[in-house]
Amino acid sequence: xxxxxxxxxxxxxxxxxxxxxxxxxxxxxxxxxxxxxxxxxxxxxxxxxxxxxxxxxxxxxxxxxxxxxxxxxxxxxxxxxxxxxxxxxxxxxxxxxxxxxxxxxxxxxxxxxxxxxxxxxxxxxxxxxxxxxxxxxxxxxxxxxxxxxxxxxxxxxxxxxxxxxxxxxxxxxxxxxxxxxxxxxxxxxxxxxxxxxxxxxxxxxxxxxxxxxxxxxxxxxxxxxxxxxxxxxxxxxxxxxxxxxxxxxxxxxxxxxxxxxxxxxxxxxxxxxxxxxxxxxxxxxxxxxxxxxxxxxxxxxxxxxxxxxxxxxxxxxxxxxxxxxxxxxxxxxxxxxxxxxxxxxxxxxxxxxxxxxxxxxxxxxxxxxxxxxxxxxxxxxxxxxxxxxxxxxxxxxxxxxxxxxxxxxxxxxxxxxxxxxxxxxxxxxxxxxxxxx
Length: 437
Description:
By secondary structure, this protein is of the alpha/beta class. The protein has helices at residues 16-27, 42-49, 63-76, 91-95, 99-102, 114-125, 160-166, 193-200, 213-226, 246-258, 274-283, 297-303, 310-322, 340-352, 370-377, 403-419, 427-434, and strands at 2-7, 31-36, 53-57, 85-89, 107-109, 136-137, 175-178, 181-182, 209-210, 232-235, 263-266, 285-289, 326-333, 357-362. The strands form 3 sheets. It has a 6-stranded mixed beta sheet, with helices on both faces. The chain has a 6-stranded parallel beta sheet with strand order 7-10-11-12-13-14. It has a two-stranded antiparallel ribbon with strand order 8-9. Helix 10 links the parallel strand 10 and strand 11. Helix 1 packs across helix 6 (114-125), helix 2 (42-49) packs across helix 3 (63-76) and helix 16 (403-419) packs antiparallel against helix 17 (427-434). The relative contact order is 0.08.
């Protein structure tokens, strides 16, 4: 069966979700291809590949792109004699299932899709309906039977060929991405993981699932053998480690000897103790993302539920510097209920931590997250907020900021990273340039 995966764009990381699904499809004898909407050639891709199944993978912020793309798919399918199934997976349908009805899709997949994908293709081949397949919702059966994939070593490695066929120039890029685990135990209110855990917990399902060290190393060795331009591995797990355990001890011992490439990972400050930092450095970690998110303990812990005191943050970033783990650190501006003064305090705190690469973003509300519900509750976000258009300008969606303040936030977002590297006496210049009186 021919399956066309459609994504919005290729940004700074490989689309591992689609690549994993494509690998599973190929394992079961299906043919796959990737179409990238940003390329503007969806119609030509459809004509050339002539798929029987079209799979959209999207985040909420890109739904509008897929609504437009779906018009092209629905028009094209009139020209072929077979039924073309339209299915959506990814974060958006998982947490915003009304898209099933908004786009009149044949099905959506909520949560893990590796097994669901194959079961859907089997049902389509046998001319059966898709009802009753775990994690799959249809108009006839919108409630799902829940399933998580617990044994990750059973899954095939991501299909990189589908990516490089669609974007050959990426072969020259030295970064290769991999997942070592699925799931996250933390409850950060701006993130979808707490919603996922609430949705799928129970009935003995394991929500935190990790591949064996041997399987991770085997994949990385295969990457090096097949794509010798690889220079660094990006472990894309939501959080690379929860605590020091036997897994990281084995990984730190074997990875530098058997793979030998440096790597990047996502980490939390509460877990970066000195003994863990020593293991990460030994394993070959050269950079990490260790987010700050808020400039005060009250916002970070009471509103975002990060549970990280200021002193912990200072110690963790100091440890990262000590072991040359170059820490990227994002900070959220425009947290619901805050002021422009809070945003400048966030900048000053981020600067004080001396992160290797401090970055700043403006809070963007996503349906299904606790922070979005909090924003609605305190009256700074309209209950009927239109999520479709939320990314067009990049400005805050919160209604407690004036238009001028939203422009200040945009300028602060652009300039703060630079000023974190400048002496403190330059801070008044940042205020002037950002437009804050």
